[in-house]
Amino acid sequence: MQESAMPITRDAALRVALAARSMPGITLPKLIDVLQNRIGSEQIDTDNLRTVTVTDLKTAFASVDGEEDGEDIGIGLEAMKLAVRILWGDTQGDPLPPVLAFAEGDMPGSVRVALASDSGEALNGHFGSCIRYLVYQVSATEIRLVDIRDALEADFADDKNGFRVQLISDCHVLYVVSIGGPAAAKVIKGNIYPIKRIEGGPAMEVMAEFQDMMKGSPPPWLAKILGVSAERRLRNYAAASVEE
User: Mind spelling out the 3-state secondary structure of the chain?
Assistant: First the structure.
């Protein structure tokens, strides 16, 4: 989906996604609907987000739920105050780690791994709702963060899970803290192996554990991935030798 078709700019979408997660029971599409009604603009951006107040949210959500007092709809006043600060840009969560350059052939024998993340450099996201995917290239000797991919546009796609699978289609493995059965089936159909790690954890610790699994006796599914990678490398080397 092209950005021009979205009712919200990318920068604003990140704030709105974080704000939605700060309020219990509020989804990203629901909050966007409320903001569009409040702002009255064709597109939500960071400038008009700064006009939103706590009273606006209380009134809007109380109206939607048929309650007279916004504090009684299960969200809580403090949560709405935090949401407004996020919408204004006063808090954006943990800083993101730097992405390192990567070119094909840099890390022979490496595997590409995606981690579902909602904040910082951590595995802490659900496949179908995480804000972004951290993408690592992992070999037996090196771990490198090669990309950070925002997943916000998935909420505007007809097939949300399909959009997310396509977003990480170049990855061999996916780590999540949670994933539903139908979503897992789509991930597997996309030739990506899903791993559910309910406790989550710092991304580099998770990747170090994955690296140890590569260096030891890898399970059959990982051995298959490594074998495919080896076959591709051999073909590439053979093609390069012919050209020379």
Answer: CCHHHCCECHHHHHHHHHHHHCCCCCCHHHHHHHHHHHHCCCCECHHHHCCCCHHHHHHHHHHHHCCCCHHHCCCCHHHHHHHHHHHHCCCCCCCCCCCCCCCCCCCCCCEEEEEEECCCCEECCECCCCCEEEEEEECCCCEEEEEEEECHHHHHCCCHHHHHHHHCCCCCEEEECECCHHHHHHHHHCCCEEEECCCCEEHHHHHHHHHHHHHCCCCHHHHHHHHHHHHHHHHHHHHHHHHC
